[in-house]
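Take a look at this chain, tokens included, and explain the fold to me:
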Amino acid sequence: MVDWSSLETVFLDMDGTLLDLHFDNHFWLEHLPARYAEHYDLHPQEAKDRLIPMIMAERGSLNWYCTDYWSERLSLDITGLKAEVGDRIGYRPHVTDFLDALRASGLRSVIVTNCHPAPLALKLRRTGLEARVDDIVSSHQLGKPKEDPEFWQDLQGLAPYRAETTLMVDDSFPVLESARSAGIAQCLAVLAPDSQQQARARHPEIPCIHHFDEILPALRKRSPLPSGR
């Protein structure tokens, strides 16, 4: 499923890959519509009927992920509202074991996320995730989402890598397809990003897992890279 022996770098998505996507799904589909209804004195269903199409229209763009964009467009403090349900932020199963095994293997681990810096900071405060990886890059630093094929070339400026020795792990099929098109040698899809929802169907071409325990044994057998990698 993964050829660990050929790798130097592992790029990791955050939401839905390392962290439970339930937090984000609950916020955008339940909490935000409820607070939007309160703010604008709307029936809850009317609020959803207004918000969901508005949000979905931005899917795949940087605006889809941009807290500043939605705060301005909705005249609401999106980061503040996210903090109201911050207790729902948490790791997916087996993630800390997987990250510990990555570190022990000597592989370089970099979170590559579309998450905006403001909610990213909230999630890091809640999880301490930054201490478990070598680096974190937000697509907002590059001005384009991971779905954009040009993202991967621009990423070289912040997290230099060799595509032929890199693995990308993500729960988004469009992101993984973008990474493959950019020459990333190995891609791996996560099928169960939200602990409160059923797993999705497999991608026809990209290897898939439900949880990291499926690939932990092989990773732990990998010999550490020599120092000075």
Remarks:
- DSSP finds ten helices and six strands in the chain.
